[in-house]
Structures are given as structure tokens and as C-alpha cells.
Amino acid sequence: MSSHDFSIVRATSASRVWALVGVAALGVLAAVPFWATAGDMHTLIEALTLLALAQMWNLLAGYAGLVSIGQQAYIGLGAYGLYVYSDRAGIHPFLAVIVAGLTMMVIAIPTAALAFRLRGGYFAIGTWVIAEVYHLLVANFPELGAGNGITVSSVAQLGRETRDRGAYWLALAAGVGAILLVYLILRSRLGLALTAIRDNEAGAQSLGVDVLRAKVIVYLVAAFGCGFAGAVFYLNAIRIQPDAAFTVNWTAYMLFIVVIGGIGTIEGPILGTAVFFVMQELLADYGVWYLVALGGVAVAVMLVSPGGLWSLVRRRFDVSLFPVQRRLRARPVTPSASPP
Amino acid sequence: MVWVNALVQGILLGGLYALFATGLSLVFGVMRLVNLAHGDLGLLAAFLVVAVADASGLSPWIVLVVPAMFVIGYVLQYVTLNRTLESGELAPLLVTFGLAIVLQNVLLETFSADSRGINAGAIETESIRVNDQVAIGWFPLATLVVSVVLLVGLQLVIGRSRLGRALRATADDLRAAELMGIDHRRTYAYAMGIALATVAIAGVFFGMRTTFAPSDGPARLIFAFEAVIIGGLGSLWGTLVGGIVLGVAQTVGTQIAFSLEVSPGWGGDLAGHLVFLAVLATRPTGLFARTQAT
Amino acid sequence: MTLLRLEGVSSFYSDFQALFGVSLEVAEGETVAIIGANGAGKSTLLGSVAGTVQVAGGEIRLDGEEITRLEPHSRVDLGISLVPEGRRIFPSLSAEENLLVGAYRKRPGAWSVAKVYQLFPLLTRVSRNPGWSLSGGEQQALAIGRALMANPRLLLLDEVSLGLAPVVVRQLYETIPVIAASGTTILLVEQDVGQALSAADRVYCLLEGRISLQGRAEEIGREQLTMAYFGV
Fold first, then answer.
1. What is the mean pLDDT of residues B212-226?
2. How far is B263 from chain A (nearest CA, A)?
3. Same domain, A217 and A300
4. Which of residues 24-43 of B touch A (CB under 8 A)?
5. Which of B168, B173, B182 is the closest to C88 by Cβ?
6. Is residue B93 part of a domain?
């Protein structure tokens, strides 16, 4: 008869505290339209959509080992999807955002079929090429405004307050939703598969993990997330310019945020987004130097402390706010006199 | 006849693409590194020449940009990239991408977004008139010739020289090469140096051929990559063929768009991308592959 | 004169300790064999001498000079050449190119491509063939020849017999005395105890990371050997 009672737990004391803090923060954030200025709201919308994008990029690169520098394809297509569904198909803009996101999953299927023929660095550039193809295709259609871009007038017609609030809450849904989505995935069997793949892909494959299926699912989820976030961003911005919607700078932001914050962790992108905005504020007067600084810091982080800022926090405090690991807890049990 | 001309121009353009692709292919072959800053580094060479030319007038001294870029490549690899290679697959990609963005924006701040050109004099515009509709520009022809000569030279170095054997041995089995006394960190640095020297040549030819701006870096990388994939990994000659196929796809694509009277946006770059995707879909190992894209 | 000396060397094979304070000596011109069961630490020992394994404690001296922390590629300059376990010839290079790579560090000495072909005539047939196409025996001969091209003072041989047919192993071992006669000191690790004893002047036996027996090859008795080898 064992002298210990074993149970498998996930939560840590830190994560329980964080969960309470998080719920409170969520309440505050949800109420923002009622107490913040329009300018603040717009900043928050940008921050939340970037956070969502960063979580998606982290899911791809940090957990599935897929370095994609072509996610801007889904951001741009998501934006144009918003236009097509709301202006052309007459769907309510707020709903169109969701439909656009789902459409991205469909587009991601043939895209993945092509991109996954490449691996590693060539996969990365391949995703970029594909993004460029989507960019050029869209820019060729006068119905979509061609090179000059297009305005999502159905959004413009919503009225300022509705528009701002809707955009904000959708952005909040994107940001928080992305975190929850990644968290849930990592707690699932897919998450286990991803961890195995991350540790040793060949080994995982030999254990029967369907590596390709796991990667495709992650890729589709990321396509949805990026498409949704892109649609929300342009719901806020209203005017879609193909060069800006499909620029690789999106990937640069996602990459830098994730690397600086801490790749392969859920907390990392949150931290990274905060750093990004702080740096943007500090260097606002210096033009593109803030991108140089951001890039420089990201490179330095990769060379010196590849785990990013969150890894420094974790090393110092041994804390995990989004516990994904299962831990074995043993509690000693006093032996009783009852028969075995 | 216009089609023949499109074909000829495409082949000549392919020479430039092959020049850009050579360094990318070499580095991948030796150390499995895809340098995402490759295109921007080619632009760097062009801008260095512009800076020197602005200061002291265009002179034979511009050839110094080639050894200068060799040194930059050597140092970059030795100091920075070698470390990332030891950290796993993600690190080199993330670092070179960061480098690319930093470089692009530094060039942007230093030289502004205005287009520049390197003036090569009369040779730039002169051409051999074959007939009414076909002309072979001296300069594009020179570019193609240089790219072939470079490829021949590189094949000789890799195939016959002590350094070349060291590069191939290191690519085969890094630890076993160590046992031969080959310090892979130096070997990799040489490879990157050679790669940047070739991309410098490519960048300078590019700068003489058209006007350029800092934002042109990524496109150079993409075309180089497409040339490598179309041609097939592991084959330097495949890279030449890949470059030519890409060039022809672009020029013929433009001609098709023109003849069909649709927007020219359907030709050029997009046509090249579509051909690349077609090759990827049907023959992912490329036309002359010797290794896998893994 | 002692060429190689290990003093209290402790080394790790990834996370676990494979050598516990091993001390041994190899005199110049000698052929010394290290035998022992699988996992006894033989390859780790050679790796420590070659520099491919990090030494956690103790010292390794070549001709009096400490080399414990030197990187593998630097040890080649000093005259140490390792023929690694599994041959590890370069698959995409031809046999002859493999030999030429072996001469990357141009140490002065008599070994050349021609001389290696003399030692291993079977290689002349496949000199232009790529490494991956060679048979196990050809690869092993090539690996040894490649190591010799650096004109080593100390040749390290790791499990030459591994995966090869006995007749091939015999043929390879016939070259050992020829190599030794040219002045090369040889330290070899071998599972095939019979071959090891016939090729070596002296023998060390490793048991679970420690020396369990040492002595002149011809003087070691069967029973002694069994006890030292298996620890019974």
C-alpha cells in the first residue's frame, strides 16, 4: 500500500493569484470605452491587436518551430476580407471580422500545402513570397482599389461611438482570446505534441506523433488569429492600403515583440507588447530609429539571453502565470489499520 | 519577334539573379544557414559605392567594396552568426531577420528613401542591335558573363582547393572535420565572407543597372531564393538555370500582360512568383537538386 | 620516453560520469590497447585525449605539455589524430579527397596519398568514388589513412573492428605494425580482445570507468583478463 497520495496538478500559487488579477484587469479593460479618451482607446486597440498577432506568431515559431515571415498575408487578406464581406456582401462589419478570420483558415489550406514543401529558412522566405503574391494579386484588382487602396465605408457609416466601441471590444476579444486560445491549445493533447516536437522533432515522429498534422493545425489557427486581428485593426483604421496591409513590417513587429518578451512562453508576448509600446513612446520623435532600436534589442536578446525578458523573470522568481506543465504532487498518507 | 526579345532580356536578367543567388546558396550548402539579410547586404554594397562615389567620384576604387564586404561577412559570421548556429534552428533566422530590418532602416536614415544609381558611364545604355526588335545590352550581357565566370570560379574553389574541401567536409560532418584540424568557426566565416563578396558584386551590378532605394533589399533576397529553389538545392549551376528561368518568367510574363492588354502588374514580379510556386508545387526539389530543402 | 600521460582524468558522457580518475601512460613508439566491455568508458577516454570529450577533472599531457582543455582542431597541430568510432568519413567527398582533407594541417612527415595507397591498396580502386559508396572495410581503411595524412605522432583508433567482418578486421590489423614501424605511437580502443592483444605491446582494461588491469600483452593471463573485463 503506497504511503503517498499522488495527484497531478497544474496550477501554481502564482498562477492562482494571476488568475484573480487577470479577471479584475479584464473587467477594467472591458470598461475602457466608458472612462478612457478616444485616443487612448485607439492606442489600446493597436496594442491588443499586436498582442494577438504576437501570440499567434509565438504559437507558430515558439511552439511549432515554424518561423513564418509571411503572416502579413493573413493580416492583409483579413483586412480586405472585412471590406468584401461588409461593403460588398452586406454583412455587419463586426460580424464580417469573424467571417474574415474564418476565411483565412480556408485560404491557409492551399497555402500550407505549398509552403510546407519547404523547411527551415527556406520555409520562412517561402511564406514571404506567398504573402507577396497575395499582395500583388490584390493590388491588381481595381475592384479592391488596386494600388491606391480602399475605404471600408460600411464601417465609416456606423457612427463614431459604435465604431470605436465595437472595434475596441473586438480588439479586446482578439488580444485576450489569443492568449486563451494558445493556453487552451497548450493544455490539450495538441500541446503535448507540440512540446514533443519542439524538443526533438524526429524523436516525436518516431513516437507516433503526427508532426505534420500538428503543424498544419497550428498554421490554420495562426491564420485565423492573424486574419481576425488584421480585420480588427482595419476596422479601426477604416482605410486599407495594400502596401501597408501586406508589409513585412508586421512580421518584424511580431518577431521583435516575441523575441524580446520571451519566445516559447505565453507571458513573453504580453511582456514584449508592453516593451514595444514603451519604446514606441520613447523614440516617437526619432522616426524609423525606433525600429532599428527594436531590431537591435531583439538581436542582442537572441545572442545574449535567447529566452527573452520573461526568462529572466522566471529564472529570478521561478514563476509561471500560465501554467501548462503538469506536476506530480505527492502527499504523505498515514497508513491505516484497514486490510490491504 | 518581341517574344524572342523578351526571352533574351529574361536570360540576361537571369544572370543578375544568379549573381544574387550564388552567395545565398553557398552559405546554405555549407552551414544550413539562410541569411535573411542577404538582399539588404547586397544593397549595402551598392550604397557604399554610392557613398564613395559621392565623396570622391566614381573610380576604380569601387572594386574595394568587394574585399570590404568579404571582411564584413567574415566578422559578421565569426562574431555573431556562429553563436546563433549553436542555439538551434530558430536563432539564425531570427537574428538575420533582425539584422535585415536594422540594416534596411539604417540605410533609410542614412541615405533617405530617394532612389540612387551608380553611374557606369556609356556602357550602361549601349547595346548590340540584332534586329528591329531584339537588342542585347552590353551591360546586361556583361552581368551574365560575370555571373558565369563567378560560378566557374566558385566551382573550382569548392571543388579543387584546400579551402573548398574544408568547406565541403565541414558541411558533411562538422565534428569529423574538427578532427582534421578544421576549425569550423573559421571555415564558416570564410564561407560567409565569400558569400558577401559575391552579393557585393551583385549589388554593384544591380546599382548600375537600375536606380535603387533601401527598400529594394527584400526583393533581392526573394528573387535569389526563388532562383535557388527553381534550380534545385545543392547545385551552383542549378542556381544559374534557376535565375534564368525566373528572369524569363518575369520578362515573358510582362510581355504576355502587354499583349493581352491587362494590367502590367500581372507580369514582372508576380509572373516570376507564380512560376516559382508552380515549380514548388510540381517539382519541389527543383530542376537540378542534389540535396533536400531541409 | 612518455608521449602521452593521463593523470586522474574524469570525464562525462553527456550527463553521466564515464571516467573516474583514470591514469595511464603511453611511451613513444608503443602500441597500447584499451579493452573493456561496452559502456566501460573506452571511447570517452579516447575522446578525452582527442578533445571531443570535455574533461571534468585531471590532466592530459602530450610530451609533457598539458592539453586537457585544448580544442580538437588544435590538437591536430600537436600531432594527435583520431580515427573516430564509426569511421565518419566525409560522404560527399571522394576517397582521395577524404585523404587530402586529412592533410589540412600540413605537419611535416612521410605520409602522403601515395604512401597511404601503398598501405591500403584496396583504396586505389575506389579513389574517385564518393565516400558514401564505400564498403565498411574500405571506409575504415580510408579513415585510418585520412588520420595518417596529418603525420600524427599519436594515432588514436576507436573501435576499428566495429561492424566489420573478421577477415576484414584481420587485414586492417595487419597494417598496425606497419604504421607503428614508421614511428607512430598508437593508442587503440577495441572490443575484439584477441585482436587487441595481438596488436598491442601493452594493454589497459577499463571496467566501469576505472582501470582494472594493466600489463604487457603477452603476459596477461586469461583468467586475470576475464576478471578485469567483467568485474567478477
1. 94
2. 7
3. no
4. 28, 32-34, 36
5. B173
6. yes
Q: Residue A300 and residue B260: Cα distance in Å, rounded?
A: 51
β partners of residue A310: none
Q: Do A302 and B98 touch (CB under 8 A)?
A: yes
> Taking CB atoms and an 8 Å limit, are B181 and C82 in contact across chains?
no
Q: Name, in order, each residue with C-beta under 8 angstroms of A142's C-beta and a sequence gap of 6 or more.
A: none
The ipTM (two decimal places) reads 0.90
Amino acid at C44: T
Q: How far is C188 from chain B (nearest CA, A)?
A: 16
Q: What values do phi and psi take at C65, rounded to 5?
A: -85, 135
| Domain range enclosing A202 | 9-247
CATH superfamily of this structure's domain C2-230: P-loop containing nucleotide triphosphate hydrolases (3.40.50.300)
Question: Domain containing B77: what range?
Answer: 2-282
Domain boundaries, chain C: 2-230
DSSP A265: S
DSSP state of B214: G
What is the C-alpha separation between A175 and A181, in angstroms, rounded? 10
Burial tier of C172 (Cβ tally within 10 Å: 0-12, 13-18, 19+)? buried
Rounded to a whole number of angstroms, the distance between the first and last alpha carbons of chain A is 7
Rounded to 10°, the helix A189-199/A211-237 angle is 110
> All 3 cell numbers of residue A14?
502564482
Q: What is the pLDDT of residues B163-177, one digit of tens each?
A: 999 999 999 999 999
C52 interfaces chain B, CB cutoff of 8 Å: yes
* Per-residue pLDDT tens over the stretch B18-65: 999 999 999 998 998 999 999 999 999 999 998 887 777 667 777 889
- Best of C85, C87, C92 to substitute, by most chain B Cβ atoms within 10 angstroms, is C92
Q: Is there a contact between A120 and B294 if contact means CB atoms under 8 Å apart?
A: yes
Query: Low-confidence residues of chain C, pLDDT below 50?
Result: none
- Coil, helix or strand at residue C150: coil
Tell whether A50 and A39 lie within a shared domain: yes
